[in-house]
Design goal:
Number of domains: 1
Strand content: 15-25%
CATH superfamily: Vaccinia Virus protein VP39
Oligomer: single chain
Radius of gyration: 17 Å
Helix content: 40-55%
Shape: globular
CATH topology: Rossmann fold
CATH architecture: 3-Layer(aba) Sandwich
Number of helices: 9
Length: 224
Amino acid sequence: MFDQISHRYDLLNHLLSVNIDKVWRNRAIKMVKPFQPKTILDIATGTADFAIAAKKLNPEKITGIDLSDGMLRIGRRKVKKKGLSHLIELRQADSEALPFENHSFDAAIVGFGVRNFENLEKGLVEIYRVLRPGGVFVVLEFSLPENTIFRRLYFFYFLKVLPWLGRLVSKDNRAYSYLPESVREFPDGENFVRILETVGFEKCNWAPQTMGIATIYQAQKPES
């Protein structure tokens, strides 16, 4: 599915979010900054927007992984165009079977990707495994607004407007119907934090964005 929409993915993301997704990414990156990571793993990197934003952290290496070859092709073109090929490497890999040694990264980030994990807990266990002790994990993901009136407007947009625009631009009938379904099924807020803690993460917190349309989660792997 993501291969099919890869050529229009960035356009649709920025169009459908009125570019506010860029603001959310920058806020998430700021939450990583105090940890001064030298090595960063961007899981479900897609077309590498989050990985490119992470260059502001001045790391030595950013590795992005994704299952979709189509998305990675677009991402590699963007990375090359921005002159970041020396810094950012994009690899095809499964988030639930990461091809890295234990304790390989100082930080891990995921932008709008954890809700797509086939087995959420398995994917989180893998991320925990490859993080170094004391490493930070930051997730940016869609969530459900708590305000009743705003939630109704949100669902009208998500269930009616977004799929129509998505089909119009991407010519894919499935992708933008899948998005609201996956958001509704994702255990957001406290529910997600509890899963993070079950996996072993500590100091977990979350910050709703734009009336709860999205949420940024931060967690740490214990020092020992």
